[in-house]
Design brief:
Length: about 350
């Protein structure tokens, strides 16, 4: 008897993802620059694995997807942030390994590669035509709701009723994926990241959270500021604001457990470019590099008063907010700002 492809394999292989719409492009709300795109497939960029279809044991890299209920909740949150015209939700399938999301093990999963099988947009969405063309997937235009999502799942099920399972997955495994538009942040995703600092308000200064040591704060000949860990193990940074925010929570808890009060005012983060050799840190999502060129800084809202002095002395924007969403918005801003940066420009920026 023929078993339907959606029932044939890992039961959690099929699920939903929420995206921001950037023109006709589906763009991940988090982890920008950490994905490669094919016609229908998205693939995570992971320095920890050798087989592109396997998950590495030491990291949480992967394309995350979830069940319809959770995706619908996430869709509502993103619509509140950026408006219904700028959010898409897609039904798709994991290609390669599948593992549970370490944070939401019952509701969400990750896979190194994920294929879009159908796209759901609100009625009369102007992006429908271009998105259909770009991703070669059916676009359904309906008011987004759990019922509409069930309709889309049923439509995919009907489409795939005669598709043999091995061929279906072989095709998706073989589809080529590449960095989207070859943005500098996609070509070198490991170079862009968030450094977490202890903030000292008076006078304003930053220090590393690990073993106390002197971090040099210098300027290039063109006046650009950078931090350098001379002779030390290198500055730790996270390539996504999501992990930076998570680490921030871990540190706040650790300081609170150690008896510190007002832990929310203790930290600052900078987002920028890592220079020189880069090392990944086993068992974490962190990286190390000797030098960090910050482009923007986030300080605790309680220290908003430091903003003018920091902007004047450091020559970069200081945002008085520390949240995942603010980090994502700043990553987005950096992406826009560096849209035309070539690899040569990047080298020149890092030149001392
Ligand atoms: Zn990884």
């Amino acid at each position: 008897m023929h078993v339907h492809v959606m029932d044939s394999d890992h039961p959690q292989r099929f699920g939903w993802r929420v995206w921001h719409l950037d023109g006709a492009r589906l763009s991940p709300p988090i982890h920008r620059g950490k994905m490669r795109f094919g016609a229908r497939v998205v693939e995570s960029v992971c320095q920890h694995r050798t087989d592109p279809l396997a998950l590495a044991p030491d990291c949480n890299c992967g394309i995350y997807f979830e069940d319809a209920d959770r995706a619908f909740q996430r869709w509502c949150i993103e619509v509140d942030r950026v408006g219904a015209d700028n959010v898409a939700v897609t039904f798709g399938v994991a290609v390669g390994d599948v593992a549970a999301d370490p944070v939401l093990p019952d509701d969400a999963f990750r896979s190194p590669r994920w294929a879009i099988l159908a796209i759901l947009l609100p009625p009369a969405s102007p992006a429908a035509g271009p998105v259909r063309k770009r991703y070669d997937a059916n676009v359904h235009m309906k008011t987004v709701s759990p019922t509409a999502m069930q309709y889309v799942e049923d439509a995919v099920r009907a489409d795939l009723r005669r598709t043999p399972s091995p061929e279906f997955f072989e095709t998706l495994r073989a589809e080529p994926a590449h960095a989207q538009d070859w943005h500098v942040m996609d070509r070198s995703p490991e170079r862009f990241g968030w450094c977490l600092w202890r903030l000292h308000p008076d006078p304003p200064a930053l220090s590393v959270l690990e073993s106390p040591r002197e971090i040099a704060c210098r300027r290039t000949s063109s006046g650009r500021l950078y931090f350098e860990d001379e002779g030390g193990p290198g500055l730790i940074y996270h390539t996504s604001g999501f992990y930076c925010a998570r680490q921030l929570g871990v540190m706040a808890q650790a300081y609170s457990d150690a008896g510190w009060s007002d832990v929310d005012g203790l930290f600052a983060v900078t987002y920028g470019i890592a220079d020189g050799a880069i090392a990944t840190i086993d068992g974490t999502d962190g990286h190390r590099s000797r030098r960090h060129f910050p482009g923007v800084m986030c300080i605790p809202p309680s220290h908003e008063g430091l903003k003018p002095a920091m902007e004047r002395d450091w020559g970069m924007g200081a945002v008085p907010a520390l949240s995942t969403y603010v980090f994502h918005d700043l990553e987005k801003l950096m992406r826009t700002k560096l849209a035309h940066m070539s690899d040569d420009d990047l080298r020149r920026t890092l030149k001392r």
